[in-house]
């Protein structure tokens, strides 16, 4: 296009990350005759564009990260060229024109990351060169003439080459400030010439084979040196010259063999970064504490222990990062936690046992890494001071005192004693006595004061008479009434969105223009030029006679302005006065009727311009919607690519949106992803709601079911048209964000650097205008506070940018105002979403019943209902033996008879008498129990019985007589059917019982029948009492008499039984467990059957009695052994310590260490945390709990006496996990405050990964029960 637009006024443009391969470079760049800088990074250029020859004023050229092999061309003709940056290309020495260095103004040359084998020829001719970067090439030598001519060099980087020596002429670079020689084999180079570089500030000698013998001598002469890198060398110590450099700010000595540091390091008072990693240091000198400017300290991979860190390290008030990984630290000094600015603590791979409690007091700490410290225990975190635990825990107050108060208990006092009781009567008497005393004192004081006043008045009067004065001669001062303006209390309002805070502090004139209800500051170049359809606010700041700052505020109204601008100009003028605190009034000025004082501000030179900005009110005109079709891809975030509205664009792997105004059609390809479908539908719903006011029609269709309207919108389709995949592996092109810049007579278009390559909303500043280039869509985002000229310039630039770069034919330019962004524009940004948060835990009924007026979020935070009372109740005590025996005797006396059945196949058969009390985990059993029940007495008899009971309390003899006269109750019976199901049995047994035996029993007993379903190890005490402690649970299924082969096979496996009582003797069970030594405990008894391959004897049965076992349990173990096995086995009673070798090695896999005490039996408690009641509750299981009590949909708390485990079921909700964790913390704190209770540690376990200390609290632990079939 001809150079008639804005291109000749463009001073700089960034065209990076465009594809200019295969002659796609825009020809219109040649029209930018005023171009000063040009960036063409990452544009796939393979050769120098010919259009550069037309840029005669070009000064800075950047072509990094391309595919350039040579830069021959018209570069030498660009006489104004100053910077050449062609790093990360494939340029060789032959590809560099020699005459390029003869340019007079060339100051920056960057040929790094190329394929140069030597210094470019005639480089020494660039005598004005300031920056030379040749790193990452193959240069092996430097000509001596180079540094003779380039004496003005400030920056020199020749790292990562093959240099073995440096020319002595290097000392001539007296202005050099940065020298980087990293990764060069400078073994024999002494580098003595470096001491002549007195202006040197940065010196990098990384991996240059330095040691104490070839380090540059007299480094203390480099007094300006602030950055030194000597890492990856062979230094055994710090060079002495470095200790004398007080100007050092960054020192890197990592990856050396330094063993100690001198106390002379206290001279580094300005040091901010010190890296001593990967050395052989065992301690740090105390002089380190004097480096008060130190911000970053790295000492990883050394041999430093706790004593190696100086105690006074807390004096480093500016320390932000402390990295000490892979050392021998047992802890860190508490002073390190006192560093007020510490943000990062890396302590991995140490021997950390604990950390100071002050670690929780570091307010700015962002990273704390203590991984690979297996013995580390974090100190307890102090309780938060806020009421409740915050929104994250639903504002529930989990403090111990609050929870104790809820259950009616007294909170613990710090001293451990009970709080002193308050007597209200005594307090009232004390207050009354104190009041009487204070009143008497005040009365006495008033009397004395009155007497003193009278005496003073008399003395003053006598003195005045002596001096000849009278009271009438005194001049009374006139008291002025307080002004209404002074009495008016001004509200504290925030005007920072409209006016800067430092406004009005400098003399001069400031002008704002009203646009979209907001005042926007205009440039000084536009002062005195007023648009007829606009309004302006003017602030005149000046000094008065007393050198006090004064202000005058005007608001100017044009003849053609709208009503909203008139009102806003007057309102914001008052706001400006209030912000300044000025006592002046606002002055109204109208077009063509300005006051002389107003005209004097512009020297009587003002001009009117026709036109102005649009009104801020919404217009009632219907918007014209542009017909567009978008190809939608992606699952995590949607990517919308505008494509031509043609049927050929359809692809079965994608979703397409066809927008034709008030009808939006969504087309789903047959092979598109379901998540993309859902998100596309939500996006279209938002477009309809936000941009079409819910008036648009949304039509969805799948491939093959298209409507005629759809094909008509795409221009029609032929009968034989078939949709085929053609896009392939589509990778969305990354968008480019430009910031429009405007100066005096020039335009600039630099790119905005995207954090992590993603667009985020905070990049858009309200004072600027941005151009978002998305290839097929070019958006112009206009900030609310941007100026009129910048907006006009950005609009022109966007049109030029859209035309000069190759784009699809459907490309368009869209204007976007701040606050009115479209959903397509928002979809380009990460995290810019208008979706309202939805509480999916609430039912629809609850949502419909919401109040009409919603409370404020901060005011409506009410505490969620909870019930944690079970945590504070005492542990259920174990039932005494005599009480258990009495209960067992009573229940068995009431038992008239018991019939037993077992499920065999598909029917229940009678259980042999010898198998009663022997259960199998894979079977189901039925027990019909008939109980004797005394018949209830008549009502009169009950009254007589109560009277007799009262008399018995008074007189024992009368009680005995009444007892004899008492009527004998008539007999009655009650039948209870116990259905017992093993943990490995299926539900088929229960179904069979329900449809067979239960109906038969109901027909026989009627209302006198009660059915109780029991699960393994969850039996009630009455049922257990009928077996008189002979309750054996075997693993597997019951063996039938016909299965002789199976019996012979199973009898060859050892059987191991654990006898244990949970909560009392009545709950004594003998449960088969996995044969391992780990189950043994000195407080229990066990039965072990070791099989033999002998026809005379089937094996031996051991009754193992622990040294601390209860004698009654030992008797039960001995009786059970004889009852469980027949005479074909031999029996042996073993006391702990008398075991034969056969006991250990044949059955238990070898002798190993086992537990010698079961203290957890006296402390273990199991709590269930659930919200099934509609609120969070904690309930305690009985002391006879088992593995099946661990519910998958709940969270359990297990107290073992030394640990508190939080067991999380796989189906439990996040709410239950959060609240259960806080509840466990409350429980641990409560147990710490109780006397004679050991301290407990809190740990979290998951299902299937329980530790042994958790498992041993459950009798007969095995594999988890699978879902019933």
UniProtKB/TrEMBL annotation:
Q: Where is the composition biased (Acidic residues)?
A: 953-972
List the residue ranges of the region (Disordered).
407-483, 940-972
Disease resistance R13L4/SHOC-2-like LRR domain location = 241-326
* Organismal lineage: Eukaryota, Metazoa, Echinodermata, Eleutherozoa, Asterozoa
Key word Cell division present: no
- Which PANTHER family does the record associate with it? PROTEIN FLIGHTLESS-1 HOMOLOG (PTHR11977:SF51), VILLIN (PTHR11977)
Bias (Basic and acidic residues) occurs at 943-952
Q: Which residues form a coiled coil?
A: none
Q: Which residues form the Gelsolin-like domain?
A: 522-599, 646-711, 754-825, 1178-1254
Q: What is this protein called?
A: Protein flightless-1 homolog
What GO terms fall under cellular component here?
actin cytoskeleton; cytoplasm; nucleus
Pfam families in UniProt: Gelsolin (PF00626), LRR_14 (PF23598), LRR_8 (PF13855)
| Swiss-Prot/TrEMBL keywords | Leucine-rich repeat, Repeat
Q: Which biological process terms from the Gene Ontology are attached to this UniProt entry?
A: actin filament severing; actin polymerization or depolymerization; barbed-end actin filament capping; myofibril assembly
Do the record's keywords include Phosphoprotein? Answer: no
Q: Which GO terms describe its molecular function?
A: actin filament binding; phosphatidylinositol-4,5-bisphosphate binding
